[in-house]
Design goal:
This protein is of the alpha/beta class and 235 residues long. Helix content is 41%, strand content 8%.
Length: 235
């Protein structure tokens, strides 16, 4: 199944100075992995095949917002990047470490099969002309280090920025979301699921979901999604 890409210039609060078309690369915070594990049936849902579209009025609930984010992922070129540093986030028993590793592996397989960090898999019929990506420096300035959250939160945010992700997605309002303004100077959007969906909705990106004509199911993406959770961590 082809996944339509995103017009970077249409949503500057997500893509900043990038231009042209390409995937949306999202780094998921560990707290969202736990939400997924605890609510995977509700978040997975029907991926739009039941005719249910997006429900912005429910996005204040992170589970409902994740449901709609994965609806977007199913139809569009959303690539979830999970850095290996997440294996060090929290005190993991042997079983939980094995479960988290299975989650990282499943998302990594989907990420690379969709094209990884490349923009070359653009397939939505638009012409890419002069698309601009931002250059990731070999060494960040000291102001970058000062903008990072403390502890493991900072390690994960740095990993997202180093990789060139567009968004670090979290529900941690105590520390990480408070750094959104500072990290925006380095072209990394720190958002909760509601904020990301609202930004894409305002720029018209959510309207690009197929309406009325359903293509063949993306069974490969579905397999990746459901393979993650039978043994996923739940606390």
């Amino acid at each position: 199944m082809s996944h339509a890409q995103f017009d970077y210039g249409a949503t500057p609060s997500v893509f900043f100075g990038r231009t042209g078309w390409g995937p949306l690369i999202v780094c998921l915070d560990t707290n969202l992995l736990i939400h997924l594990a605890q609510n995977h049936d509700e978040i997975g849902g029907s991926f739009g095949f039941d005719g249910q579209g997006f429900c912005p009025q429910l996005w204040d609930d992170p589970v409902r917002a994740l449901h709609d984010l994965f609806l977007l992922w199913f139809w569009r070129d959303v690539r979830f990047f999970l850095p290996p540093e997440q294996m060090k986030d929290g005190r993991l028993t042997v079983d939980r470490a094995r479960s988290r590793k299975s989650i990282l592996d499943a998302f990594a397989q989907d990420f690379w099969e969709r094209g990884g960090f490349s923009r070359s898999s653009h397939v939505d019929g638009e012409t890419v002309k002069g698309g601009l990506d931002l250059v990731i420096p070999d060494v960040w300035p000291s102001s970058f280090d000062n903008a990072l959250p403390a502890g493991m939160d900072g390690v994960l945010v740095r990993a997202a920025a180093d990789a060139g992700a567009h968004v670090f997605l979290t529900t941690d309002g105590r520390d990480i979301l408070r750094r959104a303004h500072d990290m925006a100077r380095f072209s990394l959007a720190i958002m909760c699921p509601n904020q990301l969906l609202s930004a894409l909705d305002s720029s018209g990106e959510l309207a690009r979901i197929p309406d009325g004509q359903i293509p063949s199911p993306d069974l490969q993406s579905l397999a990746h999604f459901y393979a993650v959770f039978p043994q996923a961590e739940s606390d």
